[in-house]
């Protein structure tokens, strides 16, 4: 007996789909020749219960990408569907597609579901994401060079600690060579990938070792007020 097209079943939210998946759970995650998944279909057609079931029961990756590098969040048409993906199923709203656009930017550029883009912008603001959308950069008159993307967010394994220092503790200006290396790395398309993170780690390690060598060579004296 031939297996029905599971992507059509998902688009139609057919009652045949879940029994089929439960009898063969491996059918929940495959993608077609274009990377289209059941999760993309459920998101596009606003099948909320199916979305939840695919992620929570069958453990489908919520950030699954198609051939354009787009997650299911890129194809939503309603705020409610976007809320389920982001707030319940933990789909990442700041992931970028192969054109370096977030779901917010892609949806806004198409102009059909601007209310969804507004919601994603609100989410980004609530979470304090530092990477502004390209439209915001244009509106604020940014002087970034043409074609240069805003810096990506910090990777999960990097944190920034805020504190206070005295005047004597303020470091000298950052080494321009080191700064240039960081900016060049951040602008790479693979910055968030494993290779980009490996390069970042190597660069930071190199910088820390350089600071330690400088400290060993200095005459450090107790401060006297």
Keywords for this structure?
45% helix, disordered C terminus, 10 helices
Explain this structure.
This protein is an all-alpha fold. The chain has ten helices and no strands. Helix 1 runs parallel beside helix 3, helix 6 (103-110) runs antiparallel to helix 7 (114-127) and helix 9 (176-186) packs antiparallel against helix 10. Residues 130-147 and 218-225 have low confidence and may be disordered.
Reconstruct the topology from this structure:
Blueprint: H1 6-12, H2 17-23, H3 38-44, H4 48-56, H5 79-88, H6 103-110, H7 114-127, H8 134-139, H9 176-186, H10 194-216
Helix pairs in contact: 1-3, 3-4, 6-7, 9-10
Report the structural category.
Answer: mainly alpha
Q: Low-confidence parts, pLDDT < 50 over ≥5 residues?
A: 130-147, 218-225
The value of Rg in angstroms is 23 Å
What global shape is seen? elongated
Reading the helices and strands in chain order gives: HHHHHHHHHH
Report helical residue fraction: 40-55%
**What characterizes the major β-sheet?**
none
Report the strand count.
0
Kindly, what is the distance between the CA atoms of the first and last residues, rounded to a whole number of angstroms? 88 Å
Number of helices: 10
- DSSP strand content: under 5%
| Average predicted confidence as pLDDT | 79
Brief digest:
With 225 residues, the protein is mainly α. 45% of the residues lie in helices and 0% in strands.
């Amino acid at each position: 007996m031939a297996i029905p097209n599971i992507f059509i079943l998902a688009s139609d939210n057919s009652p045949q789909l879940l029994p089929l998946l439960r009898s063969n759970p491996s059918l929940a995650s495959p993608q077609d020749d274009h990377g289209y998944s059941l999760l993309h279909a459920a998101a596009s057609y606003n099948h909320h219960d199916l979305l939840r079931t695919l992620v929570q029961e069958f453990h489908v990756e919520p950030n699954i990408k198609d051939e354009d590098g787009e997650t299911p969040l890129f194809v939503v048409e309603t705020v409610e569907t976007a809320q389920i993906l982001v707030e319940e199923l933990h789909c990442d709203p700041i992931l970028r597609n192969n054109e370096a656009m977030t779901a917010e930017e892609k949806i806004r550029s198409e102009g059909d579901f601007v209310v969804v883009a507004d919601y994603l912008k609100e989410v980004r603001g609530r979470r304090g994401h530092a990477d502004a959308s390209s439209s915001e950069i244009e509106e604020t008159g940014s002087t970034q060079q043409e074609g240069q993307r805003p810096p990506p967010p910090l990777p999960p394994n990097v944190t920034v600690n805020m504190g206070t220092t005295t005047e004597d503790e303020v470091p000298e200006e950052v080494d321009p060579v080191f700064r240039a290396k960081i900016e060049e790395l951040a602008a790479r398309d693979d910055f968030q990938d494993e290779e980009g993170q490996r390069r970042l780690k190597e660069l930071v390690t190199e910088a820390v070792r350089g600071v330690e060598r400088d400290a060993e060579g200095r005459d450090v004296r107790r401060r006297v007020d």
